[in-house]
Design a protein that fits this description.
Elements (H helix, E strand, L loop, with lengths): L7 H18 L7 E3 L10 H5 L3 E7 L12 E6 L2 E13 L3 H16 L2 E5 L9 E14 L4 E12 L5 E12 L5 H24 L2
Parallel strand pairs: 1-4, 2-5, 2-6, 3-6
Antiparallel strand pairs: 3-4, 6-7, 7-8
Length: about 210
């Protein structure tokens, strides 16, 4: 009877080979996906272009948000269980929602000609008016129909005496035209655009 002996080196090689085969059999990890909100500029009248509603500088402060709503991963909840809020692992915003939405509002108000100049806090320019925003909900709703839900609080105040000129909450819930996170992001984009249009019209009438 012939006995076979396995040397320590052969044993190590066998273990490494088995580990390599196991690693090769595992599926690759999902890739990271990044999204952003881009709001088209509004159409404005000749009167608004020649005579802005607010004289001087109007500053748009960085929006505020709390909890996971302020993070990069996209937030979602199920229509059947709205009290449970989750975040995707591989679907993220290109920047924090507070910065992304406030930057888009700056561009929107500039295009709308609501003030002589629309500036940001980084400009370090004295402003006669300040627009503030708070993101209450900014998420995908899953269920029979995928939706994008945007819920913002927006306000306008005079900086000199901190007098509140206008404040309101705005909610937009838009059905996604296609399934998946990409469809929900497009719905969120439409919701933000609707809210910006309503807010701009509201403060233009003050």
């Amino acid at each position: 009877m012939i006995k076979r002996f396995i040397t320590p080196m052969l044993a190590v090689a066998a273990i490494i080979g088995a580990s390599g085969l196991a690693a090769c059999s595992q599926p690759p990890l999902p890739k990271d996906n990044f999204y952003r909100i881009l709001i088209s500029p509004p159409r404005i009248t000749k009167a608004a272009r020649s005579a802005p509603r607010y004289k001087g500088n109007l500053e748009v402060a960085r929006f505020a948000a709390e909890g996971i709503t302020a993070k990069l991963p996209i937030v979602y909840s199920a229509a059947a269980n709205p009290n449970e809020v989750m975040a995707y692992t591989y679907h993220m915003w290109t920047e924090a929602p507070e910065a992304m939405l406030s930057e888009q509002l700056v561009n929107y108000l500039r295009a709308a000609k609501v003030a002589d100049r629309v500036v940001t806090p980084e400009s370090r320019i004295d402003a006669a008016y300040i627009v503030s925003g708070r993101i209450k909900r900014f998420e995908r709703i899953t269920g029979a129909t995928s939706k994008g839900l945007v819920f913002l609080e927006l306000s306008l105040r005079e900086s000199k005496n901190n007098k509140l000129v206008y404040m309101n909450t705005y909610r937009a819930e838009i059905d996604a035209s296609e399934d998946g996170v990409g469809g929900a992001v497009a719905a969120l984009n439409k919701g933000v655009a609707q809210i910006f249009a309503r807010f701009t019209a509201d403060i233009a009438g003050k």
